[in-house]
Amino acid sequence: MIPKGRVLALLTLVCVVLTITSSAQQEPRFDFYTRGPYREAVPRPQIVTRFDVGDFHTNYATMERVIERIAGAAPDRVRVFDIGETNEYRMMHLLAISAPENIQRLDQIKANIARLSDPRGLSPAEAQQLTASTPVIVWLNYTIHGNESASFEAMMQVVYQLAASDEQATQDVLKNTVALVNVCANPDGHERFVTWYNSVGVGNPEPSAAEHEEPWSIYGRNNHYRFNLNRDNIATSQVETRHMQRAYLEWNPQVFVDHHGQTSQFFFPPAGLPINPNLPPEMTARWLTAFGRANAAQFDARGWDFYVRDIFDLFYPGYWDSWPSLQGATGMTYETDGGGWKGLRWKRDDETIVTLRSAIAKHFIASLTTLETASRERAARLNDYYKFRQSAIEEGRSDKIKRFVILPGRDPGRAAELIENLLRAGIEVSVAQQSFRSQRAHDYSRADSPAGARDFPAGSYVVNLAQPQKRLAKALLEQNTEQDAAFQREQLARYARNQRRSRSAAREEYGFYDITSWSLPFAFGVETFWTEDAGAFAGESLRLTPRVVGTGDPSNSGRAAAIAAGIGGDALQMSAPALRGGVTAHASIAYIIPYDRNGAAALAYRLLRDDFKLAVTTRQLNAGGRDWPRGTIVVRVSRNPDALHERIASLARETGVEVLGVNSGFSEVGDTGIGSETVISLKRPRIIVVADEPVSQTSYGAMWWLFDRYGVDFTPMTVDAIKRARLDNYNVIIMPDGSAGRYFAALGKSGVDTLRGWVERGGTLVCVKGAAVFAALKDVNLTSARLVGSEDEETQKTEGTTPQQPTTTTPSTPAGESTSSTGAQTTAQPAQRTPQRTTQTGTGGAPAEPQVVREEANQTEKMDGAPPDLPPIASPSARPGRVPEAVPGAIMRATLDRTTPLTYGYDETTLPVLVDSGYFFRPSKEGTNALIFSGDENQPLRLAGFIWPDTERLLRGTSYVIEEPTGRGHVVLYAEDPNFRAIWRSTTRLFFNSFLFQPVF
Ligand SMILES: [Zn+2]
Predict the structure, then answer these.
(1) If you count Cβ atoms within 10 Å of the first and of the last residue's Cβ in the chain, which end, N or C, has fewer?
(2) Distance 340 CA to ligand 1 centre (A)
(3) Nearest Cα residue to 433 out of 407, 458, 404, 463
(4) At a CB cut-off of 8 Å and minimum separation 6, what does 237 contact?
């Protein structure tokens, strides 16, 4: 009960708000307490929060008190499980809510579900008995995007309803389901958002009001390291993901709902195309439709707007709807229409008002309806779950792909990290004890490599697909995931029409929600085969060494645990001794650090950071009785203090690198030994990373995470600070991906001159993706490289029709979403923040393109409603086939120039890389093109994912990584982000090379 005085105060507040908004249409105030009777002992959330639903935002600690009070008052229905800490030391909680008789047998229920989830050795009769006697597990996931705040508030109302109500419908839900409520999937991001919003929000619905413009340093969508947690189920790099995956596999839910909030109207499934083809189509569609129809009935009854399908697909396996779906749950995304960046109140484009409270109400109803649907369909849903798991095993036995074999290779730590990813996702992996043979093995060298006989050595990792997690395993490991043909045809039709449109006409958006390829063997750069046979072999099942979760031990909590979570397969070290690094012997002359593992980059950096003296061989080196390739690192004992011996031994163990101790400088063969002139001293990198409005949050965050993990110090600096700082105290400036136009606007001519002067005095400027586009702008000219298609821009400029200069308008879409973007996004339409999960703006690589308002395109273009014809004429300003269309995340084969220090440590001739934009760089005329796309038309470039008809032709002969000398310094350009989502591990050393080896460029 709420004390009377408080109710009065709340009513007064309501009246004030109503008075202000009397002119605008606003939805009626939803009553959350009509579904009683309620148990008196259980407190309403408002008793603790001291404000009414949707009048303010609840912070994490207050929410924890709400949950604690409710759970304490309803122990018969509610159990609280702590599932692990975030980077900022907040505890994540999973609640199990069910009827008292279920709560008392939770372990039995878990065990029953676990048996259904692995049907091997389970008879049909037993399965039937289990489905008859076990509640269905429904996971309700809230606030994975921390600034989608209606989700957070709705959660507390759902928990209260389930814990307190004696209504018959609620009782039925409790009897037939175990509701697992993940109270907040992204506590750190949510806390940033609400602290900021609560302190500035006045409830002003005007879209241009300050409270709707979340600052760069807040941006609560992402977690501490600015990772989008709704993409991380592929790399599983973030602690929140790991905690949730561990809990998921403990409970094996049959229904999973991820609650979001940034669409214009409420969204729920059925999902749009494309659907991941590893999902059984009929079963998937049937359940999505069943839950969707039930929600629709409730929304229709209340006159609430919603939509289904559209652009919310189910393709990329790293979302929290597709990842559960691939394991047999009905995985769904719900998006509510208010709260978050829309604040307490928001004026829509038709001047009606959406409130935080009404957005909370919609999530509340959708959550409860989902539970009711699951409750009603309990036995059928459980039975289909069992069938899903069973048919997965059968398919694994009969499909063409029966097994993946993954070789540890030259960087066994990187392979082990890949294997850990699979184990965290509950995929069964074993390691071969003896060599074995496949008669029909395919390598990953090309899209359609032929089968051949192949022997695999002991130590190879084996993933047999005849296992319950087959569908997820295949989705993560297969070379390419096919997309629906009709979906692709539709995108190509839009492309054909766009090609004929003028430069300034609005272009049709494409339906790609995210990257179209992610194959882990490519991304990790680990040699992998798939085989058509799956003969017996001697293998041992791998397990992750369990990590203790919880408080008490600071070395095992929060950020410390995240950082210690290991370079080089730390968690697998128990079963794979080869992963352990160390020094072979106490050296009297030098230590040799082979540079073929990612861990070696960390080791070299950390020694430099500790002021030890290191050098790198620029020619093949002979030392310790063997040859070492260029790029091998030499630590001379004579140049270093005695502390070196102990330090290098401990760091080698930590980073998983085998270091050789050498006791003579004499080289047996060749012209390069430890004392040679061509072994060049390295300098300690002193690094600035730009951290400011133009910068993509996720690009910055992936770098930050990598640097923390590898122990790299850096100084985050705003653009203003860079303009006035003593830059000569630093020798490296890294500009993460970001909008080229906004970089230019923020730096201005004087800032560009400052950067240029610093580079000419000896600095190394590293530009990633959008920042590389910035460097290549004609008016910036920090490199001689130019974008393919930009010649047209320059012609335009002389004709005076299109502004070449990036405009100074800021900001545009939140930088965090910006995995790819046109160079100069200049419009500030808040509407653009809506649903696009990705950022394929589709306007090609050239900066200063006219901006398409994405929202309108999405709403007016229906997949099957678009006109079948081409525009009758191509506009005179159209340039079909001249400007690259942004590629929606395909994997392409690049060729390495192995004569440059940028590629030290790579002995392969080609490397699979991600192309996720239309930024194709013409080769540098003045510098080195370290990675290029072959001009040889007999070498197919595409390895996986979707590309446009002109992509390969335009990409051929362009550069992916460029190094160019300027004065005494250098500019290094990466066409794409080498640290993308922490999925891409094969380019980690390539990235380190740009600052570790700056003295030898
Ligand atoms: Zn979201």
Answers:
(1) N
(2) 10
(3) 458
(4) 227, 705, 981, 982
CB atoms within 10 A of CB 857: 17
The answer to whether residues 185 and 142 touch, using CB atoms and an 8 Å cutoff, is yes
Q: What are phi and psi for residue 455, nearest 5 degrees?
A: -95, 135
Residue 35 Cα, ligand 1 centroid: separation in angstroms?
28
d(CA 982, CA 580): 23
Does residue 26 sit in helix, strand or coil?
strand
Q: Are 460 and 548 in contact (CB under 8 A)?
A: no
Residue range 666-713, pLDDT digits in tens: 988 888 999 999 999 999 999 999 999 999 999 999 999 999 999 999
Alpha-carbon distance 216 to 230, whole Å? Answer: 19
User: What are 458-469's pLDDT values in tens digits?
Assistant: 999 999 999 999
Ligand 1 centroid distance, CA of 514 (Å): 14
Token pair recorded at residue 763: 């600095």
Average pLDDT over residues 60-75: 98
Q: How far is the CA of 338 from the centre of ligand 1 (A)?
A: 12
| CA of 485 relative to ligand 1 center, distance in Å | 28
Tell me which residue of 242, 35, 9, 274 sits closest to 157, measured CA to CA: 35
Structure confidence by residue, pLDDT tens digits, 672-682 = 999 999 999 99
Q: Compute the distance between CA of residue 707 and CA of residue 226 in angstroms, rounded to an integer.
A: 14
Distance 262 CA to ligand 1 centre (A): 6
Rounded Cα distance between 961 and 809, Å, is: 30
Output the pTM of the full model: 0.90
Q: Which pLDDT score is estimated for 561?
A: 47
State how far the Cα of 112 lies from the Cα of 325, in Å rounded to an integer.
20
Q: How far apart are CA 783 and CA 774, in angstroms?
A: 10
Q: What is the dihedral of CA 876, 917, 269, 221, to 10 degrees?
A: -120
Residues whose Cβ atom is located within 5 A of ion ligand 1: 145, 148, 260
